[in-house]
Amino acid sequence: MVSPASPATVTHIAALARFGHALSDATRTGILLALREAPAFPSDLADALGVSRQVMSNQLACLRGCGLVEAIPDGRRTWYRLADPHIAPALDELLRVTLFVEPGCCAGEECTCA
Questions:
Q1: For residue 51, which of 10, 26, 55, 96 is within the disulfide window of CB 3.0 to 4.6 Å?
Q2: What CA–CA distance (Å, rounded) separates 46 from 43?
């Protein structure tokens, strides 16, 4: 018999709320998806996602504040990686669940779910 999940705590709720906040912005979501593949420099992320370096800086600061990415100094530059090895598989699983529920919901840039 499978035991029931442990009850949600204030810490659990806060952690998932931060994760949800991070995913609520397309640029932040793109950053997390890019970093699940490999660490990267902000300039490379900005180029890949088609945003300015200032926007990238702001979004990386948000993700650091959420505890999802960490900055690694490398000489005069800094690169970023996911803060915990569990984040990449969690994103993969979330993609599978979301796509299973409604695969055509948000095709392209415009979401038609709402």
A1: 55
A2: 5
Mutual angle of helices 26-37 and 42-49, in 10-degree steps: 120
**Residue 85: which of 15, 36, 39, 42 has the closest Cα?**
36
Residue 78 CB contacts under 8 Å (≥ 6 apart), including other chains: 41, 42, 71, 72
* C-alpha span between 29 and 75 (Å, rounded): 27
- Encode pLDDT of 50-98 as tens digits: 999 999 999 999 999 999 999 999 999 999 999 999 999 999 998 888 6
Count of domains for the chain: 1
- The CATH number given to whatever domain includes residue 62 is 1.10.10.10
Evaluate whether residue 89 is within a structural domain.
yes
